[in-house]
Amino acid sequence: MGFRQGAVLASCSFFLGVLFICFFVDYRILHQELTEEIIEDGFQFYATFFNAPPAIKAVLHGFMGVGIFGLVAKLHKYDESAIFFDGSSLVAYIFAIAVYLAVSVPSLRTVVTPVDVDTHADRIEALRILSAGNTIMMVILGAVLVLQGGQEYARRAELRELAKIEELKAK
User: Fold this and answer.
1) Tens-place pLDDT, residues 136-166
2) Are 127 and 111 in contact (CB under 8 A)?
């Protein structure tokens, strides 16, 4: 494993770790009967998350950039493996970032800093949408990790087959 693959795996794992922490709240919001306690826990959790110091947000966004950089660098090799595995991973990773930017950030703002026209029901709906978006991102980033693992498996299987062919030629 080289630096490029390490950058991809590290960024996906970091992003998944953050989403896994959120999943403790998201699970209750999505899969349990909504009570005032669950709703208030969600509001408090995401308010803490939203009001985190700028350095924490910079690290999260920086790791997103590292993931894109690593995938583009791996795609630069431009062989069949890179086109299939890294190209698919890049598309999935960009889709996860698009979900983050288009769903999570606006929903987070609605939950934490509602505008005058946002009712309590709007904030609850935004909380549910935020939780669903986080779950979608977890699935997508899991798929990126599976694709990267599949690429490594395919590379090792190819090396084994080439070694068998070389062994047969030597006989």
Assistant:
1) 999 999 999 999 999 889 889 999 999 999 9
2) yes
Surface-to-core class of residue 93, CB atoms within 10 Å of its CB (0-12 exposed, 13-18 middle, 19+ buried): buried
Q: Which two tokens stand for residue 66?
A: 């590292």
One-letter amino acid at 92 equals: A
**DSSP 8-state code for residue 149:** H
Q: What is the pLDDT of residues 75-99, one digit of tens each?
A: 887 788 778 888 999 999 999 999 9
Do 147 and 85 meet the contact criterion of CB atoms below 8 Å apart?
A: yes
* Token pair of 158 as six digits: 């190819």
CB 67 within 8 A of CB 140: no
- Tokens of residue 67, six digits: 């993931």
Helices (H), the chain: 3-31, 36-50, 54-75, 80-81, 87-99, 105-112, 120-170
In angstroms, the CA 107 to CA 22 distance is 14
Sign of the CA dihedral running 19, 21, 22, 25: positive
Longest dimension (CA), the chain: 81
d(CA 142, CA 112): 28
